[in-house]
Every structure is written in C-alpha cells, then in structure tokens.
Amino acid sequence: MKRIQKSIVIIFLFIYSFHYHCWAINTNNDIFENLKNNYILFTKKIELKYNFDIELKVLNTLTPKIDAFLLKKDFSNEKKELLNYLLKINQERIQELQKIINERNILFKKQKVEELKYILRLKNIIKHWEISIFIKSIQETGKNIISVDRNFEFIENNVIKNIFLEENFEKKRIYYEITASNYMYFYELDWLIVYLSEQDKYIFLIKDTYLILEKTPFSSFYKDISPVNNYIVDIEKNFSSDENKNNYFLKKEGDSYYLISFKEYFYIKDSYWFYPYKMGKLWYKDIIFFKDAQNGNIFYTPQYEKTKIIDAELISEVKDKQSFIETMHNDKVFFFNDFNFYLKEIKEETKNIVKDIKTDEEKIAKIYSWIIDNLDYPKKYSLSDKNIFSWIMTYKNRSGVCEWYVNLISYMLLYAGIENVEIISWFVINSDFFPEIWHSWIRIWDFYYDPTFDDPVILWWNILTEKKKRPYKYFKLPKELLYSDRYEYENLPENMKIMSSDERKKIVKGNLYNLAIKYWDKDFLLLKPYYFRIKYNLNFEQKIIKETLKNIIPYYEVNGSDFTTTINGKMEYIQQVEYIKIKNDDDDLEPILESKNFNMDWIYLLKWYLWPNQYEYRLGYNLKMKD
Fold first, then answer.
1. C-alpha–C-alpha distance, residues 421 and 414, integer Å
2. Do the Cβ atoms of 304 and 284 come closer than 8 Å?
3. Dmax of the chain from CA atoms?
4. What are the residues whose beta carbons fall under 8 Å from the beta carbon of 240, sequence distance 6 or more?
5. For 539-564, how does the pLDDT look when each residue is reduced to its tens digit (9 = 90+)?
6. How far is CA 562 from CA 197, 463, 616, in A?
7. How many other C-beta atoms lie within 10 A of the C-beta of residue 456?
8. Which of 126, 160, 287, 555 could lock onto 215 through a cystine, CB 3.0 to 4.6 A?
C-alpha cells in the first residue's frame, strides 16, 4: 500500500508539472480536459491492477497531498484553479467508489444472513441422532459416519460439503443399505458410512464412486469486486431483454463497456450456494451468475456473447451511463466501425450547444431546437435504407426518421447531464400507417417530447418559411396529453385495429377536446384548436369554414378597385391590410387560424370584390383605415 501511495504522489507531480508547463502555452479549457484525461488514465491503471477498495484508499491519499503541496508554494490564481479542479474530480471519483463499495457491502451482509439461515436449516435437519448399536460396532473399527440431508449435504467446520456420486445411485447400484441383519459384512470393507437423516437409514458408499465437494458461498463474490472480476450481477438494475427476446446486461471491464447477451439461463435450485466441480462436469467453462435482487433467486448462463460497446472515456461525464449504453444497444451502434469517432463529435457538439447554460430545462430546450433546426425528415424513404435507420448516418447526413431523431437527441441530452431519459416506440392511432409502422418519442422525467412531430415535412399555406419559426406543440407535455393519439402495445384496444382511419381520428379529436377543458388554464399549443372550439361553442368534429367565421369575427365586403367598405352604415377606406387567401368555400381554415395562434383579435373575414361579379374571400389582419 505504501508503494502505491508513493506512486500516486510521483504520478501527481508528473501530471502537475506537465500542466504547469502547458499553462504558459495554452490558457483555454483544453488544459482542464487534458488534466482530467490523465487522471482517468491513472485511475484506470489502479482499477485494472487492484480493486475498488485499493483504489479508494489510494485516491483518499491524494487530497491531503495536494493540500500540502498548495501550502508550500505561492501559486497564482490560475495554478490554484488547476489544482482545485484536480481536487474536485478526485472527490467525485471518491464519492462514486464509496457508493459502489457501500452497495456491495449491503449486498454482502444480506447474503451472509441468507447463508447463515441455510447453515442453521441444514444443522437442524442433520442434528445429532441416536446411533444404532450395530452401527456403533462398525464405527469401532475406525470408520467415519457422515449425516447428510436429501441432497447429500453435510456441515464440517461451518463449511457446507456434498457427497457427490459420479453415477446416479438410483439407476446404478453403487451403495449398500446397512441393516441389523447384514451389518457384520461391512467390518472389513474400506467404505464410507452415510446416514440419510431424512430417511432414517444407513448406507455404505463404494470407495471410488463418490467425491467430497466443498460448496462455494455466493457471498465470496462480493469480497473482491473490481471492474475486471465481478461475475455476479444484480438483475434488478442491470438485466434487460430486447425486442428479439435476447437477454443482456452491460458490464464495465477496464476502460470499456461491454454488452453481455444470451438466449437462455438456468436457475440454481438452492439460492445461496453452488459447486464449481458440478458446473465443470456440465462443460461450462465460463459462467455468469445473476442474483434477483427482489426474491434472492440465483441463476446462471453458460453461453453468452460479449461485444464491446463504447470506450468508458466517452461517457465519463455522463450521469446516466446505463440509459446511454442501453440506447446504443438498441441503436445497433456496433454495426458501424466509426461510432466512437462520431460520438466524440456529438459530445463536442453538445458541449457547444449547452455552453454557459446552467439549468436542465434550458439545456433540454436548446438541444431540442438544435435537433429540429438541423435535421430533416425524408419525404421518401425505404425501410431497408440503413442511412436513415442509424443515428450515425442521421447525424452525418442531417436526415433520418423518428427513431433516430430521438436516439440522437437522447445521446445529446445524456451528454448534457440530463438524467432519466427514455426512448419510447409505439402506435400513433390517427396515423395513415397505423398499425404497420410505429412512431418514437422520448420521456424526460415526468414529461414527454416528440421532436419529429415538431419538425414539419409540409409547411401549410406557405405561411412558415423557416422551421425555427414554428412553435413547438409537442414539447414538455404531460403523458395524457401526448398519449391522446397514441397507445403502448399492451394497452392498445383490440377494436382499435379494425376501426377506419376516420373513426380513430374522431377518437383523438374527442380526447383533445376533453383535455382542453381539463387544461383550460395551461395554454398548450397542441390544444389551441380545441380552446378555440370551446370558446366559440363549436363541436370538436366541426369543420371550420368561412361561414363559421362570419359568426366569430368582423365580416366586411370590400370594393377592390378603391379599397372601400361599409362599416356601421358609413363608407370607410382601407389604407393597409395583410391577408391570406381562402381558396374554396369549403376549405378547412384551421391551418390558417393556427398560423395566427387561434387569436381572433383584430382578424377580419373579407369578401373582396375584384370585379363587380367576381370576388374571393380573404382572412385579413394588420388592417388600418384612412383617417
């Protein structure tokens, strides 16, 4: 330990002297990044060579060393800032290690309690018994007697052992039962006497047909956990399944994260111990054990695949590493050789986007805007086109479909330090492609976001010329509002699948109308059409046409040759007006009203005469009359 402590001081002095020299050359934030990278490399070396306990002891020696170093020197503010930054990242790592070790110790103590219960149960089963007179006479010849339970287990010096029979003794007779009528035949035989406590009988085992095995307690897995050697997995946190029913969990080894995937697994009948020899007899060389944190059951998988997912350095600053790596797994990112390169680009892009932004809410809004402003949803695509079904190609080409919009934004949010980000993919029932094609969106904590639906493919009425001018209707919505038009698979009513498109759209409109009543004071953009209908006593199914507007807003007939109209019996002259042309009498005017945010203040319906017998309807605004 002293040698390790001495090494850390030497390495620290090397790191410091390196950055001391760099300060004279480079005064930007790169020096802090370089320092952190050196620190990470150093801690990785400790992890690989030792374990978490040793690493914690080593890092705890670093803080007083730096403090002492600061006291001896009169440093400039810049150099003090550098040393304080090293103290900060060291303390963050110490806290992370303490959390890991504390969780391990809790699991270790719980497991030890379970193992003690197991030992006590076994002791109660094979408690002292009254040895028969004929057995005592055999015992006097120097033969041992072992009392076992139904699994042929017994206790020796508080260690559980097992008499393992090489063959199934029910199928092949490799033992003899000892009775009062035959015991004298066993005096000269060099065999083992076993008392089957639960059957109350004695047997003789043939010398070379059994082994005495020692049982390995599962608590031993918690004694020396390191990033390289940790074979027991808490499945409450780490065990998942994908859409193809492949089971997987994520594991850090050295400086990388790996995906361990497998098809099948097997429960161990007794939940707290196992016999390595028996596993070996099954030809299982590499076994991973899992412990169900809820019920304590333990199971294992003997056949698995191990795939490298990402370098640990790329997500060293990500708070929610589990969500990040699971997103990568679902993204099938390992199909591409250059994903680490592009992740570095995305990491830097995210840093630039959220630079100087303090709150999570501002970061989410900024990243959401970046996605919508910089990506385009393809108007035509093939389901076999890998370019739009990959976050890498979506980032490279700035084009992709919904799933990769949300995967890309998920990476950026996690890089920005946002936690509890979930990608969701299910049905949108008023889609023309329901139920063949699913849609994807994201949840952040208790709110829901759909960047694809906020990124229009068609700009109605040529009103919107730039995407960034479009207000966001699907940003930070409560679940019931976003889910007014969508269902998760298990909640999808069967009759929904056979409904017509018009019937499903009617259900969605009804849902939104009712939610507009509930959220009347919230002013959600998604509910604006229904606030409007409620305010003017319109049915949620009612089509808004020009005749509807005549009862809502001022209506004027205008002579287009001289810009005159009659208002309250008086001739007025129009000096200025902007307008949107209503093409047909039965046009649905909702998209036009949406462009005005459904605010009918200072909006007019104009019947504009081009010629005496020729006219058109216009929705006017910014109207001014001559004095």
1. 7
2. no
3. 134
4. 247, 248, 249, 326
5. 998 889 888 999 899 999 999 889 99
6. 114, 27, 16
7. 13
8. 160
Q: Give 34-56 pLDDT, tens digit per residue.
A: 777 778 777 877 776 777 888 88
The CA distance from 168 to 576, in Å, is: 101
Contacting residues for 126 by C-beta, under 8 A, at least 6 apart? 147, 148, 149, 154, 155, 197
For residue 533, the SS3 value is helix
* pLDDT score of 339: 72
Q: State how far the Cα of 523 lies from the Cα of 24, in Å rounded to an integer.
A: 55
- Range list of H helices, 354-444: 360-374, 391-397, 402-415
Surface-to-core class of residue 587, CB atoms within 10 Å of its CB (0-12 exposed, 13-18 middle, 19+ buried): middle
C-alpha to C-alpha distance for 342 and 345, rounded to whole angstroms? 5
Q: Are 148 and 120 within 8 A, CB to CB?
A: no
Q: Domains, the chain, ranges and CATH?
A: 2-102 (no CATH), 133-216 (no CATH), 231-311 (no CATH), 317-498 (3.10.620), 546-625 (no CATH)
- The string of pLDDT tens digits covering residues 143-162 is 778 888 888 888 888 888 88
Is the model's pLDDT at 81 over the cut of 70?
Answer: yes
Q: Where are the alpha helices (DSSP H) in 73-187?
A: 77-125, 133-139
- CA 149 – CA 193 distance, rounded (Å): 14
Q: Which amino acid does the sequence have at 325? A: I
461, containing H or E segment: none
Q: Give CA–CA dist 291/608, Å, rounded.
A: 77
DSSP character string of 19-74? HHHHHHH--STHHHHHHHHHHHHHHHHHHHHS-HHHHHHHHHHHHHHHHHHHHHS-
Per-residue pLDDT at 5 exceeds 70: no
Q: What is the dihedral of CA 179, 182, 183, 186, to 10 degrees?
A: -130
User: Any residues with CB less than 8 A from the CB of 365 and at least 6 apart, and which?
Assistant: 475
Conformation bin of residue 158: beta by default, left when phi > 0, alpha when psi is -120 to 50: left
CA distances from 385 to 81, 147, 382, 400 (A): 50, 68, 5, 10
Of 620, 613, 517, 538, nearest in space to 578 by CA: 620
Q: Calculate ∠ Cα 13-18-21, nearest 5°.
A: 120
- Structure-block tokens of residue 26: 């480079």
State the pLDDT at residue 449: 96
- How many angstroms separate the CA atoms of 291 and 272, rounded? 9
Per-residue 3-state assignment (H helix, E strand, C coil) for 471-520: CCCCCCECHHHHCCCEECHHHCCHHHHHCCHHHHHHHHHHHHHHHHHHCC
Residue 191 CB: number of other CB atoms within 10 A? 17
d(CA 101, CA 435): 48
How many Cα atoms occupy the beta-carbon half-sphere of 119 within 13 Å? 16
Tell me which H or E stretch contains 219.
none
Whole-number pLDDT of residue 145: 82
Asked if residues 167 and 209 have their Cβ atoms less than 8 Å apart, the reply is yes
Please answer whether residues 160 and 119 qualify as being in contact, where contact means their C-beta atoms are separated by less than 8 angstroms: yes
Helix (H, G, I), strand (E, B) or coil at 565: strand
Quick check: bond before 276 cis, omega within 30?
no
d(CA 482, CA 498): 23
Strands 232-234, 288-291: pairing is parallel
pTM of the model: 0.62
